[in-house]
Design a protein that fits this description.
Number of domains: 1
Strand content: under 5%
Low-confidence stretches: none
Number of strands: 2
Order of helices and strands: HHEEHHHHHHHHH
Radius of gyration: 26 Å
Number of helices: 11
Largest sheet: 2 strands, antiparallel
Distance between the termini: 5 Å
Shape: elongated
Strand order of the largest sheet: 1-2
Structural class: mainly alpha
Length: 303
């Protein structure tokens, strides 16, 4: 994910990382070639003039802009919900760690409990990205627990079951113990809800038909546009067509990136950074040494 300080208008004109420009450069080169051919042939194909003017492109452009806005709104809604879910994970993890630390300071192994909570966020991140959590779980969990989790299909849920199992072993002879356990169990349930919400987003993409229709419409509009403008704009046609194509194709590319908030694309959520911040927050609650903060791999880029 790209995280930048506020920049002035001039700097934004030359931003490269995170602008999706690099992903649409081949398409823009193609549009430049098509536009140049339209200029050199005076809008003819195989000697026949294509009878197009700007009127149909104006009407189609309005409809296309509305459709692109709908697609981007739907994509950002998924991104925003995913960020809220991970915010809830941070809140519930802190609450659970703080309550366990305060209510049962001696009945719960604090190091083990802190590591399990930290391992949960890492395991969820890898499940959503379809990668292996082994490397990050190794330094947090003992070999027996890691071996147990390696046999599980849904590792984050298995870790929550282990956390609930640790809480069930707490001595509940005191009258207030059950109430306190219920408070802790409520936070575990919040984490389970967040897992379900993330799985819902990851397993339910935007319907494929929307993507196909938008993609075909954008490219048909951009390819035909030079033949509708060539009579009025002449040698400026390639410049105008490439700029308009950049706007439409970049919007489609942004929507595709944002629609998958758990990927490692520049405009997806910085799950590596979020997971590490959760671990750092838990370690601070238990008075342990904080792991290093994640730095961007290249200027302003977090993952």
């Amino acid at each position: 994910m790209i995280v930048r300080p506020n920049q002035n208008w001039l700097s934004l004109l030359f931003v490269w990382n995170g602008s999706v420009l690099q992903s649409v450069i081949p398409q823009l080169i193609f549009m430049g070639v098509v536009s140049s051919l339209a200029v050199f042939t005076h809008g003819k194909i195989f000697g026949e003039k294509i009878p197009l003017n700007t009127t149909p492109f104006t009407l189609l452009g309005i409809a296309l802009a509305i459709f692109l806005a709908f697609r981007n709104n739907e994509s950002y809604a998924r991104f925003n919900e995913a960020r809220h879910l991970w915010g809830n994970i941070l809140i519930a993890s802190r609450n659970l760690a703080s309550q366990a630390y305060s209510y049962f300071p001696t009945q719960i192994d604090q190091v083990e409990f802190c590591n399990l909570l930290a391992a949960f966020s890492y395991a969820l991140k890898h499940q959503l990205r379809k990668t292996s959590p082994k490397e990050e779980l190794t330094h947090l969990l003992p070999p027996l627990v890691e071996e147990h989790l390696s046999k599980k299909l849904y590792v984050p849920v298995a870790i929550l079951n282990l956390i609930r199992d640790r809480l069930s072993r707490v001595d509940s002879n005191r009258n207030t113990a059950i109430t306190r356990l219920l408070l802790l169990d409520a936070q575990v349930s919040e984490l389970e809800k967040s897992v379900g919400g993330c799985e819902r987003i990851a397993s339910t993409p935007i319907p494929f038909a929307y993507n196909v229709l938008l993609h075909r419409t954008v490219y048909a509009y951009c390819v035909l546009l030079p033949f509708g403008l060539v009579d009025s704009t002449e040698f400026f046609t390639p410049l105008l067509c490439v700029f308009i194509s950049y706007t439409l194709m970049a919007l489609e590319a942004i929507a595709s990136e944002v629609a998958d908030p758990f990927s490692d694309a520049p405009n997806a959520l910085a799950l590596d950074c979020i997971s590490r911040n959760i671990e750092r927050s838990l370690c601070e609650i238990y008075g342990r040494e904080l792991p290093d903060e994640i730095k961007p791999r290249r200027p302003y880029l977090f993952t």
